[in-house]
Amino acid sequence: MTYEYALQKVKGIKKSFDNAMANAIDQYRDNRIVDLYPTTEVFEIFTSTEGMTGAKELSNSETPPVLTLQDGYSVQIEEKRFGGAIELDEEEYRREANDSSTKVQTSLIRKRNKLLIANKNLFLTEMFKFLNYAFATTYFAAPDAAALGATHTWKSGETFANNGTAKLTSSAIDTLEEYGGAMTDGAGVPMPLDFDTIVVKKGSANEREAIKLFSYGIKPVAVADINIYEGSKTIVSTPYITTANKNYWFAIASKDPNGNPLKIGIGEYPTLREPIKQNNEAIRTNCTGFWKQGIVNMPYSIYASTGAA
Predict the structure, then answer these.
(1) Gap between the Cα atoms of 164 and 176, Å rounded
(2) Which end of the chain is more exposed for a tag (fewer CB within 10 A), N or C?
(3) Shortest CA distance to 49 belongs to which of 259, 217, 291?
(4) Signed CA dihedral, 10, 15, 17, 18: sign only
């Protein structure tokens, strides 16, 4: 097989790879954990949401006062570059192409598929760093510079704590519901939250407990064993919470009007670039993509527990 023919074979896998990569990532658009969105901006600046006060009873002729939103923290997230590459060796397309037991097309498809899986895994691993490092600022910090799950300080000076250590039990959900019902914004105005989504490690004891607590139609084993939370939460089980963190569990108020504080802006899906002939006659094809991520708002709508106690 000539170099030119091999080059066309390499170019032939581009469209299928690019489409499959975009579709693989788009499957996670409605993941209930992170807000994924397309963007053309390399840098984005967000202002965290604080409170607003000043509404009052008015006399018949009184002009309503102008209410001012309290200034929040300024947060900037910057796009980063990710990717990998595959190579078709000269031996593969010049010599092995003549061997009926080894085909260039088969080798390319195998490499393409593995590259697709590797890049998808990279994207999801980066995405779930939000949860796997929820109690540290190793990779991401909230606008107030605290970890995702921590004691947080509004810019106004008020505080709230969205973290715990309790195992996932009915009692822990009682505590979660109290937290949601007592939540106030940066101005001290009541802002009750409905935590409708529970996130757990797939295959973990937390997943089994979540099913017992929230799955609809599971009958109590005794007359007094009444589950008041039956059917009240959506369970999201993910393999991308690591085994080391299998006790972690998270609750998310997905209907918070201020939106999800966890953002990933996709500048360009991982894409196959033009093939490049190497000095050793191999044909190299790079795959690169661009995205940015960060915690862009105060994470009061996310509750995180280590599950250690």
Answers:
(1) 9
(2) C
(3) 259
(4) positive
Distance CA 67, CA 53 (A): 6
- Measured in Å, how far apart are the chain's first and last C-alpha atoms? 64
Look at the chain and count its residues: 309
Three-class SS of residue 100?
coil
Cα separation, 46 vs 209, in Å, equals 37
Q: How far is CA 90 from the centre of its chain?
A: 40
Rounded CA gap, 63 and 180, in Å?
35
- Neighbouring C-beta atoms of residue 280, cutoff 10 Å: 9
pLDDT of 42 = 94
Token representation of residue 251? 């609750």
How do residues 179-216 score in pLDDT, each as one tens digit?
Answer: 999 999 988 889 999 999 999 999 999 999 999 888 76
Task: Characterize the bridge pairing of strands 35-38 and 262-272.
Answer: parallel
User: In which residue are the tokens 């999800």 written?
Assistant: 260
Question: 9: how many CB neighbours lie within 10 A of its CB?
Answer: 20
Q: How far apart are CA 148 and CA 83, in angstroms?
A: 27
Closest by Cα among 231, 297, 244, 302 to 77: 297
Do residues 34 and 265 lie in contact, with contact meaning Cβ atoms separated by under 8 Å?
A: no
- Read off the amino acid at residue 280: N
Report percent pLDDT > 70 for the chain: 90
**pLDDT above 90: residue 26:** no
Give this prediction's pTM. 0.86
Angle between helices 104-127 and 14-26 (to 10 degrees): 30
Q: What is the pLDDT of residue 201?
A: 94
Higher pLDDT, 26 or 219: 26
Please, what's the b/e burial string for 106-133 (b: 16 or more CB within 10 A of its CB; e: otherwise)? ebbbebbeebbeebbeebbebbbebbbb
Q: What letter represents residue 127's amino acid?
A: M
